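subagent[fold] <- orchestrator: predict structure for attached chain, return tokens only, no commentary.
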Amino acid sequence: MIAVEDVVVGLWRALSRRDWDAVKTFLATDCLYVDMPVPALAARGPEDTVKRLRMGLEPLAGYENHDGLLVSSGSDVIYEHSETWTFATGEQGVLRFVTVHKVVDGKVTVWKDYWDMNSLVSFAPPNHFENLANADTSWIFDASALV
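subagent[fold] -> orchestrator:
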């Protein structure tokens, strides 16, 4: 059986490459993805989780995940890491994350990202948020009562 740490590292390597098909292979069919600053805008399942991730990351000119501390206890994994976001218009910044995953039978069943929205607001171009407001939102799952 694959170690929970290897599942999480593999997921984040696939995400850093923006290899959307590979990302899906790490997610359980009922995986819950929650951006903790906005739990009402969560996603459920591999397809909708990837739709949610693509909305924010695909338009970027550059995206890179930087490994950090990874701690596991049974099926729970806490991963402290950062991401460099580079926009097509040249703006660039680093977002710092603590991500909590639950891994069952080699698949991520829960993915909760904790980060500071203000740090993104401080460097993202204004049209980034306008584009998000006009994006496909068919993926939305309100996880407020579950987290």
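orchestrator: received. Logging for downstream: The helical segments are 4-16, 20-25, 46-57, 117-123, 126-133. The beta strands are 27-35, 43-44, 62-66, 70-73, 76-86, 92-104, 107-114.
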